[in-house]
Design goal:
By secondary structure, the chain is mostly helical. The protein is built from 13 helices and no strands. Residues 4-133, 146-276 form the EamA domain.
Length: 280
């Protein structure tokens, strides 16, 4: 096994785990402004490479890709909202239910049969979600409720985009895929920039850094590792993002690691890992 590739994926997961910290640090900005930095910075960085490599001639199903990009913009907004309203642990654990939703979507819309073991894993993950939320109020006045519902919404949205992008990977280069992933968000979140003049300079700098680190560096590290490793190994290693995020939240922000998060997270992640392997 290529050690450099393994280290690249591990570093990718650890950096991705810093998502929550960076988002919470930018709390002075609106959610839409943060979303703009996350989607627009990768576009600005990728455009020169797309021009240089003559990849601006998109030959695949552009309508489908624009639809996926639009869904991804909504998913991004919900993802950021989740981190703002609830703890890093709650958000990252619930977001990583997305492989389960991918399986459900493929079964419902693409008529792929769900095997009995997959059904058991889906039920196990659902139990994990319930355990994670135990003891919290079901009310839109509850920040945890809003955040955790947003995290699940982001997970579903991401699952939809995974299915859509996966169906077009043979028609687009990696840079083109990242471009399409972000382009609609970079446009629709522009109106939120009206609030930026009142934001301090260090917050703006963090927005640029956030878009570069999460939108470019993390993806480049993942693709580098993916070239050398099997998809199953790479995606399994990426689950280290959950551990990284929870530990960073605990040590930097003093967020508690509750028994609910630990037990619910174990059930959700175990289900997600095994269902990801079975779908490959």
């Amino acid at each position: 096994m290529n050690k450099k590739a393994v280290y690249a994926i591990i570093l990718c997961a650890v950096l991705a785990g810093a998502n929550g910290l960076l988002i919470k640090y930018m709390s002075a900005m609106t959610t839409g402004s943060i979303a703009w930095f996350r989607t627009a910075i990768p576009i600005f960085i990728l455009l020169p490479f797309l021009v240089k490599d003559r990849e601006l001639d998109f030959r695949g199903n552009n309508k489908k890709m624009l639809l996926a990009s639009g869904i991804n913009a909504i998913r991004m907004y919900l993802y950021l909202l989740a981190y703002i309203y609830t703890s890093i642990g709650n958000t990252v654990v619930l977001f990583y239910t997305y492989p389960l939703f991918v399986t459900a979507i493929e079964a419902l819309f693409f008529k792929q049969k769900i095997k009995p073991k997959q059904l058991y894993l889906l039920i196990l993950a659902f139990i994990g979600i319930i355990i994670t939320y135990l003891g919290k109020p079901f009310s839109f006045e509850s920040r945890d409720f809003i955040g955790m519902i947003s995290a699940l919404g982001a997970s579903i949205g991401y699952a939809v985009t995974v299915v859509l992008f996966k169906s077009e990977t043979h028609n687009f280069s990696r840079n083109q895929l990242v471009f399409y992933q972000n382009i609609v968000g970079a446009l629709v979140f522009v109106p939120f920039l009206i609030s930026l003049p009142s934001v301090e300079l260090d917050q703006l700098g963090m927005g640029v850094f956030y878009g570069f680190l999460i939108g470019v560096v993390v993806f480049k590290l993942f693709f580098y590792g993916l070239r050398q490793l099997s998809a199953g190994t790479a995606t399994t290693l990426m689950y280290l993002e959950v551990v990284s995020a929870i530990l960073l939240g605990y040590f930097v922000l003093d967020e508690p690691i509750t028994l609910n998060i630990v037990l619910g997270g174990i059930l959700i992640l175990t289900s997600s890992i095994f269902i990801s392997r079975k779908s490959k």
